[in-house]
Amino acid sequence: MKLLNILAASEESLSQIRKSSPRYHDGGEIRIGMITTERKRILSEIKTLMTENNRDFVAIDGVRTSHHDGFWMIRGSNTQPHLTIRCEAASRTGLDDCMRDLQENLRICGYEGNELNFEG
Questions:
Q1: In whole angstroms, what is the distance from residue 55 CA to residue 102 CA?
Q2: E-strand stretches of the chain
Q3: Helix (H) or strand (E) holding 109
Q4: What pTM was estimated for this model as a whole?
Q5: Which of 12, 18, 19, 49 lies 20 to 30 angstroms, CA to CA, from 35?
Q6: Domain of 90: which CATH number?
Q7: Whether the Cβ atoms of residue 99 and residue 116 lie closer than 8 Å to each other
């Protein structure tokens, strides 16, 4: 309905609106398999890090924080034994920065896995 309302109020075609919309870069959904106690420990430690570093974050269903022109989020799955991670940014550089920031926070929490390796 929202899209139909936008089209009705605009003189542009759908393809023109799409072309003028900002393109976001995302790292896809990354899932890291791990037992429940470890997931809970990492999420708790990341919340503590955010607080200690005076970072704004939302702690509903995990942790989501802004970083430069994007954000990263991490949450524990309620139905499967893994953490779910997403990063998005308005630029490729911003996405790379978000991924590095998340990697660093996970490293500080003791997680050294390679699931977050990416080409920057």
A1: 13
A2: 25-26, 30-33, 57-58, 63-67, 70-76, 82-89
A3: none
A4: 0.77
A5: 49
A6: 3.30.310.50
A7: yes
